[in-house]
Amino acid sequence: MTTKLKAPTFKTHVDLSEETRAEMVDLLNQRLADVSDLYTQTKQAHWNIKGMDFIQLHEFFDDLAEQVLPYVDSIAERATAIGGVAMGTARMAAANSTLPEFPDGPYDGKSMVKTLVEIYGQFANSVREAIDIADDAGDKDTADLFTTISGEMDKHLWFLEAHIQV
Question: What is the pTM of this model?
Fold first, then answer.
């Protein structure tokens, strides 16, 4: 079953077809929901971490959140640049995120890092998939945006996984 793409809301001189722009706006808005959720889940970990590694992980999670936040703006602005509407409120993100829900606890260092590894890994993989979708659609700029984010996400994931790998 295929969903009907929504036409972009605004006219633009970007030389992508209306169908391609609609497809890319949908793709961008899906990743926007996910990255907004990723940011808030990282802050949830930052605020609630407990245990012997508290200060190290508290500061690390805050740094991760700061590095993820610009992706929210970049993805939203690309959606609007090609004539779409960025669907970026907290409620929109919560309703549309494909990421798993952050657990209620426990909030010890190891379980918190494992949780973030899973969430960051899922987002990184969805961004890699978005690169291929955008490239196949002929939208090199959206593919390039996702390629940049993908490389940075892999680095974040490496930093997280290094805490639990032996």
Answer: 0.93
